């Protein structure tokens, strides 16, 4: 499942990144607990966690290459909402969100940022990411404009800086399953955007 690595920044630019080769990442008995420990080690005593996204992407790729368990942990999409979220690790005081997300075909998210760094790896299906950037004007401080899009397939990994704005849509005729890890969200900096009314509201 060799894929591509991407980075999206607050200016809406999509950057192709160097991707570790899957065969260089093979490990015996590489489990979620080891991944989480290594992520904590990478982030320990770092002021700007986003600066460590290359190392974190590599750890995510190592996890999905080696862990059948992680690849098999997902829920069927909710018939009503079109999506389901399965939290993979939850401990009081643990600052990261680690989960799988399933989207039914055609389901799409709101336009949003995360208020923290994030990494998403596609496990199954196809996902279209559309990117935006802020483009304020005197009469619309929260105006945004579309800057591009990319279709992701199994094995692709995309990462985001805290101010990156995007929306996602499951494309194709099967559900999309992703592995997602996010840093600690700053609720004052996480927004949902309306590109027509030029509104940004807390998300």
Write a compact overview of the structure shown.
The protein is an alpha+beta fold. The chain has 3 helices and 13 strands; from the N terminus they run E-E-H-H-H-E-E-E-E-E-E-E-E-E-E-E.
What can you see in these coordinates?
The chain has helices at 32-43, 53-66, 68-72; strands at residues 5-8, 14-17, 83-89, 97-103, 111-112, 118-124, 126-134, 144-152, 157-160, 165-171, 176-182, 191-194, 199-202. It has 203 residues and is α+β, with helices and mostly antiparallel strands. It has a single domain (5-202), classed as Sandwich (Jelly Rolls). The longest helix has 14 residues, at 53-66. The chain is globular and about 55 Å long. The mean pLDDT is 95.
SSE arrangement:
Blueprint: E1 5-8, E2 14-17, H1 32-43, H2 53-66, H3 68-72, E3 83-89, E4 97-103, E5 111-112, E6 118-124, E7 126-134, E8 144-152, E9 157-160, E10 165-171, E11 176-182, E12 191-194, E13 199-202
Parallel strand pairs: 1-9
Antiparallel strand pairs: 1-2, 3-4, 4-11, 5-12, 6-9, 6-11, 7-8, 7-10, 12-13
